[in-house]
Amino acid sequence: MDTMEDGAGESRPPEHGALSPSGSLARRLFQPRVWDEDERTLVLDELFFEGPEWRPFLFRFGVLIILSTTIAGLGLISNSAAVVIGAMLVAPLMTPILAVAGALVHGQVERLAVSAGVLVAGTLAAIGTGWTLSRLVPGTITATELTPELLARTAPSLLDLGVAIAAGLAGGYVLTHPRAGSSLPGVAIAVALVPPLATVGISLELGATASARGALLLFTTNLVAIVLSAMIVMLVSGFVPSDVRILVRGRLRIGFLVAALATAGVAIPLTLHTVDVIRDQGFTREVIAAIREWDPSGRIVELEADVSETSASVNLVVASSRAPVPAWRLAELLASGREVPVDVDVQYRLEQRDEATAD
pTM for the whole thing? Predict the structure, then answer.
């Protein structure tokens, strides 16, 4: 049994309830804090704008949605990551999303309907702004030639779901710990809510419907993951009083079930896409190894490699100082041991070096 020494140097057992440093840390992390009504009211006032505050909030929200989407759209079209990041700082969508989570954990149907309505209106306004911006800006991109910043938001994966869950946890933590409020812009940057919506609008105007669907899936992933993880933080932190949890436990269970099912629903296509990406990356590594064997003197300039359960294709641009090696040899190397046909398209660029010295 552990002992402690008193002032006379005699040993005695530790006092009942004494906590070690590690125990104190665990208690601070996992034990719900005690909220008074004033603190809870201040937090709720940051989420729900009612009475005379409703119209000013709605006006500010609409202005910031249009401005942030405009900034994001210009950054996406011009392929400027810095401009896109600036749009994330201005975007106001985190407020209604966290308000939806707050209304769900409190079982407040009316507040949930209002917050969801603001969120839907903001989403449609952002998509419309992106569409209009793409129509007004002189044609610098096409449906088949999107900028890398646009393309980065059209193919979400499980990594994006992980980012959204972490961002939702961070957003809920910042909300329930007011002194950490300065961290909220960082959360907004991490989760990137407006750029995917701007991408949806731009892609629809260009006719790139597949890209628009991918960007909308990314936004939906962010939305449902933030709501679910923020709900968890609000409950664990003690933000919802115990008597309220008991009173609305039926609504609370339904809210959690819907949020969890929505998160699982977006995880399915994300998983399928992630599997495809991993498979394409493995095939790309295989293609690079085969190219080195096929033409050791060749230098890869461009390479696109795709593989599926029924086919595989390689589009290659290679530079070499030697005569071209027949493409069928590369196709045979790649088809060896593979059950699907492999299509290979090779473009050669002759590299010549010419040196001269004159006196």
Answer: 0.78
